[in-house]
Design goal:
Blueprint (H helix, E strand, L loop, with lengths): L12 E3 L4 E5 L6 H4 L5 E7 L3 E3 L4 E6 L6 E6 L4 E8 L9 E3 L6 E2 L4 E5 L1 H6 L3 E8 L9 E2 L3 E3 L5 E4 L1
């Protein structure tokens, strides 16, 4: 007998927010991120200079003047910060484009930010795109998939 009822699957995973090499957050050359002051997470050295949403959610914060970071409250309740580069706030938005605003609803794969990684490097800065889970205390555990090559919006990089 064929059942017409389907089990609802709760997706508590985050997909890659850019394509590239995924590293543990501890490997970043920055005391704030690597020491997990803001939270735990990972970083990706982007191959395509584009940051997309790793899942469905709502934009909680945007850095409008510098265009280098956004905060998202995911449907699962996980709150993340996506931050392009280290010390890139000093670029004051040069080489960055922001495609979302506070309160916008986003789906997995929605374009959030584009940036010029060559310009970031030319300024002597690190261009890694960093994801930090900022409300870790609300979750029992998060498994990060690092030391892999990720494909944007396809590869699972975190499981809650």
């Amino acid at each position: 007998m064929l059942s017409i009822f389907k089990k609802k699957k709760i997706d508590n995973s985050l997909s890659a927010f850019t394509s590239g090499r995924v590293i543990p957050i501890e490997e970043l050359e920055d005391g704030v991120f690597s020491s997990k002051i803001l939270g735990d997470g990972l970083a990706i050295y982007s191959e395509n200079d584009e940051v997309v949403s790793p899942g469905d959610g709502e934009i909680a914060t945007v850095m409008e003047s510098t265009k280098h970071a956004v905060g998202i409250k995911m449907k699962s309740g996980v709150e993340i910060l996506l931050h392009v580069g280290i010390d890139t706030v000093s670029m004051e938005g040069e080489g960055f484009n922001l495609f979302v605003g506070q309160g916008d609803k986003v789906k997995s794969g929605t374009k959030l930010i584009t940036f010029n990684s060559e310009l970031v490097k030319k300024k002597g800065l690190n261009s890694a795109v960093i994801m930090v889970v900022t409300n870790l205390d609300e979750f029992n555990s998060i498994k990060y998939n690092t030391n892999i090559n990720a494909i944007s919006n396809e590869t699972i990089i975190a499981e809650i």
